[in-house]
Amino acid sequence: MAWILIILLILLGGLIAPFGDLLGTKIGKSRFSILKLRPKKTATIITVLTGGFISSMSIGLLSLLSEDIRQRLSVDIPVLQKTLDESKKALLPLQEEREKLEDKILQKEKELNQLKNNINEFRRGNVVIKRGQTLFIAEINSNLNRKSDLAKIYDTADKYVQKIVIPSKKKIANILLWKPSDISAIETVIGKGGNWILVIKSVTNVLKGENYVFVAPQLLENKLIFRKGEVITTAFWEKSNLNYKVINSKINTLISQTRNISKLKGSIVNEITTRGDFMKQLSDSLKSNQKLKFQLEVVSLRDSKIAEPIIVELNIKKLEP
Question: Which residue has the higher pLDDT, 283 or 128?
Answer without folding.
Answer: 128
